[in-house]
Amino acid sequence: MQILISLLILGGLGLLFGALLGYASKVFHVESDERIDKIVSCLPGANCGGCGFAGCSNFAASVVSGQAQYSGCPVCNSTQREQIAEIMGVTAGEEEKMSAVVLCSGSASVAEEKYTYKGINDCNAAMRLGGGQKKCEYACIGLGTCVSVCKFGAISIKDGVAVIDSEKCTACGMCVNACPKHVIKLLPEKAERIVLCSSKQKGAAVTKSCRVGCIGCGLCAKVCPSEAITIQDNLAVIDSEKCTNCGACKEKCPRGIIA
């Protein structure tokens, strides 16, 4: 008899909670915007996080809610952006193609080392040991942490420096965030003249640590006909908006580090 009563009580509680859950599901039901699924279908599906959101679905929901721009996915091509713009009922604008660039030329053959690193094959691990094995504090460590986070196979390590294939790069920014030395930047793909160095040390210090580092001599700035180059913190900086890609700076650079 006691078992029967217990079963009846449990059954009654089950029916009660079931009814409450059914009522709550109707009261708190939120209509799903069909545009979210449509946008997700236009996205590459990399879930790389380059847009700043937790995956493609979250990005799509943010676009619909107005928290993100329709063009916020750095992996999308122009066709996909146009499709998303059409779903959102806006006109797609012309987007400037960006690409990641490693601003360091300190390969193993030209960069001096403080010690021989034999630890974990990870730039962050080496960074904890005096900022890495290379004497230049701004040099690419070259252990491939950026390679491991790139979902598109656009990065490789050559002679101790990360090299990015602009054809494969989607400008998602994952490598930029992963680099402990912050020597990877997203730059306009049209920028043909780039100073491949990040050192802010004075010339004398640079020459002791790297045979090709920028010494801030200013020769490139002097020969630039469009005044597109300035020396900032001992480092030559090129304004891509002013640069006409004449190549005068590349020819004059005594260190050969202007692309």
Q: Point out poorly predicted stretches.
A: none
Order of helices and strands: HHHHEHHEEHEHHEEH
Mean pLDDT: 88
Total helix count?
10
Helical amount: 25-40%
Strand order of the largest sheet: 1-4
Q: Mind telling me the C-alpha Rg?
A: 27 Å
Overall 3D form: elongated
What does this structure look like?
The structure is a single chain. The chain is of the alpha+beta class and about 260 residues long. Helix content is about 35%, strand content about 10%. The protein is built from ten helices and six strands; from the N terminus they run ααααβααββαβααββα. The protein has helices spanning about 1-25, 35-40, 55-65, 80-90, 125, 145-150, 175-180, 205-210, 220-225, 250, and strands spanning about 100, 155-160, 160-165, 185-190, 230, 235-240. A two-stranded antiparallel sheet has the order 1-4. The protein has a two-stranded antiparallel sheet with strand order 2-3. Strands 5-6 form a two-stranded antiparallel ribbon. Strand 5 (about 230) and strand 6 (about 235-240) form a beta hairpin.
